[in-house]
Write a structure and sequence with these properties.
This protein is of the alpha+beta class and about 270 residues long. It is built from 4 helices and 14 strands.
Length: about 270
C-alpha cells in the first residue's frame, strides 16, 4: 500500500495495478513510446581477413541526450558512433540515450577483398524458446571453411537452428586458420500469442480484482479496448515486476504478456 498527497495536501490511500503509481520513487521512462532512432551512415570494408581496417559509422537522433554507443554485446560504451579498426565480420551497433532506452542497427556486414560472405536468416516466432535460423555462405575466400557458434567446436556445418531472437556469435575459419566473427541478429517475428486464450485469462485472474482493474476505480483490463490502450504499460510494469503488487505472475505469464504486446496487442 502506498500513500500520496492530494491537491489539498491530505493523504489518500493509493493501490495501483498498472496505471498511475503514487510512489515517491520516480517512474522509469516508458521506452515503448520513445522516438529514439539510430541509422547507419557509412561502412568501409576491410582489406583482407587479417587486416583490421574496416569501419562503421552510425548516428543517433531524437530520444534524450547524451547518447552512449555499443558495438555488438560489449558492456563498455563510447560517446561517438564511429567504430574503426574492424576485421571482416558482421556487427551490431546499439545506442542508449539519457532515458535508458536503446535502439540498434543490426547485421552490418564488413567484408574483406579475400573474404566475403552472405547470411540467410529466419526470424524467431516462438514466444518462449526459439526457432530462428542462420545459414552462412562464403562467397570469396580461401577454403576449406569450418564454422562454430558461441563457444562450440568448429565443424563443416554452416547452418544453425533453434535460435532465439537477438545476437549470436558465429565464427568462420578459413583454410589458413584465419577466423572472423559474425555477430548475427535473429529478428523477432510474430509469436501468435492470443488475447483470448493466453492474455485475458491472466488479466482476469490477477488484475480484475476489488480495488484494482475491475472497472470501478480503474479501467477493466479484461475488456480488450482497455487492454489495447494500456498494452505498453502492461508489458513494462509486469516485466519490472512492479505489477501486480502481490507478485502473482509466473515468468511464463510475464513473457506471454510481452509477446502479445510485441505482436501488436491483437484481438486474436
Amino acid at each position: 500500500m502506498n500513500v500520496c498527497k492530494g491537491i489539498a495536501g491530505s493523504i489518500v490511500v493509493c493501490m495501483v495495478c498498472f496505471i498511475a503509481s503514487c510512489s515517491d520513487d520516480p517512474k522509469p521512462f516508458n521506452c515503448e513510446v520513445s522516438d529514439l532512432k539510430i541509422v547507419l551512415k557509412n561502412k568501409i570494408d576491410a582489406t583482407n581477413c587479417a587486416t583490421p581496417n574496416g569501419s562503421i559509422s552510425v548516428e543517433a537522433g531524437a530520444g534524450k541526450e547524451p547518447y552512449s554507443y555499443f558495438l555488438n554485446d560489449q558492456t563498455t560504451s563510447q560517446s561517438t558512433g564511429e567504430f574503426t579498426a574492424l576485421l571482416p565480420g558482421v556487427y551490431a551497433v546499439s545506442v542508449k540515450d539519457g532515458n535508458g532506452c536503446t535502439k540498434s542497427v543490426n547485421n552490418i556486414a564488413v567484408v574483406g577483398d579475400n573474404f566475403s560472405f552472405s547470411t540467410e536468416l529466419v526470424e524467431d516466432t516462438e514466444c518462449r524458446g526459439g526457432n530462428g535460423e542462420a545459414s552462412i555462405t562464403i562467397v570469396d575466400g580461401n577454403p576449406p571453411y569450418t564454422f562454430n557458434i558461441g563457444s562450440g567446436s568448429f565443424s563443416d556445418v554452416a547452418s544453425f537452428l533453434g535460435l532465439n531472437s537477438g545476437n549470436h556469435s558465429i565464427g568462420v575459419k578459413d583454410g589458413d586458420g584465419c577466423i572472423v566473427t559474425l555477430t548475427i541478429t535473429i529478428p523477432k517475428g510474430k509469436s501468435g500469442t492470443s488475447w483470448i486464450s493466453d492474455i485475458k485469462p491472466i488479466v482476469e485472474s490477477s488484475c480484475v480484482k476489488s480495488g484494482c482493474h475491475n472497472g470501478v476505480s480503474r479501467p477493466d483490463l479484461s475488456k480488450y479496448d482497455n487492454a489495447k490502450k494500456y498494452a505498453a504499460q502492461m508489458k513494462s510494469e509486469t516485466q519490472s515486476k512492479n505489477m501486480p503488487r502481490d507478485g502473482s505472475l509466473t515468468q511464463n505469464q510475464i513473457d506471454l504478456i510481452g509477446c502479445w504486446v510485441d505482436d501488436g496487442a491483437l484481438e486474436n
